[in-house]
């Protein structure tokens, strides 16, 4: 029974009660049309995902993994594990404690580079001259102005020589001036890089290493015969204000392909050069903390490559950075016609060689490995049938690296068995970047843009 409330007339002053209380006269209430509304909780909502991320079986797998390490003599307190669906951990062990990360450090360098330049950025190398040009002879010096390209290799130098000869340059009577930190073939010395470039520009001076790289280029590629009479001179400074002019602007492969090459082979020289170009190690840390929301106490780096046990991060930080890289690559589709994924920037098991060759990991996982004398690390993304893409990071400390790698392969395989092997590669892990396949071929002369062609 609904109680009856008697309201004194003095309160209403003869007006309707609804008018007094501010909601006007009572109106009939229309029924809510909920038939077409889906009121089921979204799987993407935070509380639902956190609830279903809980997986006792996965936790048991991780627990067994740690028990196996302990039985083999490894201290569980020196191991870190983070397995997550999205931002929510499915299972973890000391996931927020920094550990030596070895080459997982390159994940931070990769993220900082993408956040700084974007996936389609290209490093530029300028080639110019100082002196006079007469009948194909440069009476003066040839200048190479570096631009932080970490993947300028034999094939690029051969293509550059052919482009110069197409402009009519056959001989240089002076020196080869290497300026502004030009590096080649992963050499940190500009002087050595200059000697290698000089050799590559003139086929009669080639050795087996250059011949081998030339054989990988397109059939029928010309062999340049640009003779430089003088020596190699180096300067750390830019030569832009001292050059008489510029012949060619050479563009590197896009950053996404440069990073793919770096990560497949875990190239330390490339990683450090990229970190330096970003602004140095402190700039890398600042960038990743800002763009990925990494807590400062979960990452501490001393370089961009991961050499040294002092490069540390938490397993959670490693996964968070990988996920942010994925976000940046996927969002790049708004700026370019290319929709990249994390598979375009890290090695894929079963498809790429390098550091994943010979591993017992499930096919189509996208991973980054890390190795020091007593550190073995693995982080990446695993496609599964029931969970979609699962993210993981394993930071192990101890000797017997082969044994640690084998146990890493086993736990990732066990997790795949738990959640089912994906029947197909999901769109978010498909790749389009294949080094050596157009448009990602080294030695592609189309990336040499002529600035000036001397008159005959």
What would you note in describing this structure?
- With 456 residues, the protein is of the alpha+beta class.
- The chain has two domains: 53-120 and 257-429, 3-Layer(aba) Sandwich (Beta-lactamase); 124-252, D-tyrosyl-trna(Tyr) Deacylase, Chain: A (3-Layer(bba) Sandwich), CATH 3.50.80.
- It is 32% helix and 19% strand.
- It has helices at residues 9-12, 17-21, 46-53, 56-71, 105-117, 154-166, 190-200, 208-215, 255-265, 268-278, 281-292, 315-331, 401-419, and strands at residues 80-85, 88-93, 99-100, 124-134, 137-145, 171-172, 176-179, 227-228, 232-235, 245-251, 299-300, 312-313, 366-372, 375-384, 388-397, 448-450.
- The strands form three sheets. Strands 4, 5, 6, 7, 8, 9, 10 and 16 form an eight-stranded mixed beta sheet that branches. Strands 2-1-15-14-13 form a five-stranded antiparallel beta sheet, with helices on both faces.
- The longest helix is centred in the last third of the chain and has 19 residues, at 401-419.
- The radius of gyration is 30 Å and the shape is elongated.
- The protein starts with 8 loop residues before the first helix and ends in a 6-residue tail after the last strand.
- The model is unreliable at 1-29 and 34-43 (pLDDT under 50).
